[in-house]
């Protein structure tokens, strides 16, 4: 079987990606001939070399964009890398109906060690690492190509707040946090509190949820924080700045003016 025939077979199965190892096992071309054939298909725009040894198949309906929705290939990519992952941050938010101010960049949370970001043509994927992998709050969703993993609304909110300095700051994400707050259930929050390691982020999340006057049971957060020590923290972390006096139950020093554009 030639590479082009195998790619056509994959598309018939709604499979939009493949590894070099996979296609080598399914075709009868020599390594040199296979790489030459793949290079020609890349040149014609029929496939894209996403990273070394991994390719995306671009069917006609996506040829103008030169890219695929990430949910069509992220599971297979991370499986080929032997990495736990979930779509997180702004990428997860859109699957929970919070699509305000979305960008073309996709965000993927992975286990350490770091993985280089991917930026080529229309593809822009940022990988962010965590040392504490979730025991809960990762949801399986279905795409045409199969399953993919997404952080739950509660975990998405916590991740956005925890990594706010890398993601444009609190005010950039405030509208999305408002939309996400409508999707957070008490069960989702309870699950998060059983394992999430960053108490300062939980304090900030609690403060934000209270400010938004959501229907979420804030006693869950109160009881969690009271179960151990917690100290004043800045709402927006700043280098060389420590929290000062606080006048709210979450011990948040509100060092920025919250301005949502929703």
Structure notes:
The protein is an alpha+beta fold. It has two domains: 3-62; 70-253, Beta Polymerase, domain 2 (2-Layer Sandwich). 36% of the residues lie in helices and 18% in strands. It is built from ten helices and eleven strands. A four-stranded mixed β-sheet has the order 4-5-7-6. The protein has a three-stranded antiparallel β-sheet with strand order 1-3-2. A hairpin with a 2-residue loop joins strand 6 and strand 7. Helix 5 runs antiparallel to helix 6 and helix 6 (153-162) runs antiparallel to helix 7 (170-181). The longest helix is centred in the N-terminal third of the chain and has 13 residues, at 31-43. The model has no long low-confidence stretch (mean pLDDT 93).
Write the layout of secondary structure elements.
Blueprint lengths: L2 H10 L4 E3 H7 L4 H13 L3 E5 L2 E4 L16 H7 L4 E3 L1 H7 L10 E6 L6 E3 L2 E8 L7 E6 L2 E6 L1 H10 L7 H12 L4 H8 L5 H13 L7 H8 L6 E2 L17 E2 L9
Parallel strand pairs: 5-7, 10-11
Antiparallel strand pairs: 1-3, 2-3, 4-5, 6-7, 8-9
């Amino acid at each position: 079987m030639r590479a082009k025939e195998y790619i056509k077979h994959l598309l018939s199965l709604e499979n939009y990606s493949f590894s070099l190892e996979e296609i080598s096992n399914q075709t009868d071309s020599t390594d040199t001939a296979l790489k030459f054939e793949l290079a020609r298909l890349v040149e014609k725009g029929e496939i894209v070399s996403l990273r070394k040894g991994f390719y995306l198949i671009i069917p006609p309906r996506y040829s103008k964009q030169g890219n695929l929705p990430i949910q069509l290939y992220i599971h297979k990519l991370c499986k080929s890398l032997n990495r736990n992952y979930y779509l997180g941050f702004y990428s997860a938010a859109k699957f929970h109906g919070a699509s305000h101010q979305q960008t073309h960049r996709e965000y993927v949370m992975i286990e350490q060690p770091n993985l280089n970001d991917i930026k080529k043509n229309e593809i822009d994927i940022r990988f962010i690492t965590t040392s504490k992998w979730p025991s809960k709050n990762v949801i399986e969703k279905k795409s045409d190509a199969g399953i993919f993993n997404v952080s739950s609304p509660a975990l998405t909110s916590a991740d956005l707040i925890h990594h706010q300095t890398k993601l444009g700051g609190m005010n950039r994400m405030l509208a999305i946090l408002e939309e996400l707050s409508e999707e957070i259930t008490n069960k989702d929050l309870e699950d998060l509190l059983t394992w999430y390691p960053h108490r300062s982020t939980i304090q900030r999340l609690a403060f934000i949820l209270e400010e938004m006057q959501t229907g979420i049971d804030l006693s869950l957060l109160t009881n969690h924080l009271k179960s151990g020590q917690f100290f004043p923290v800045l709402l927006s972390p700043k280098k060389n700045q420590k929290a000062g006096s606080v006048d709210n139950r979450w011990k948040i020093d509100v060092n920025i003016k919250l301005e949502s554009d929703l």
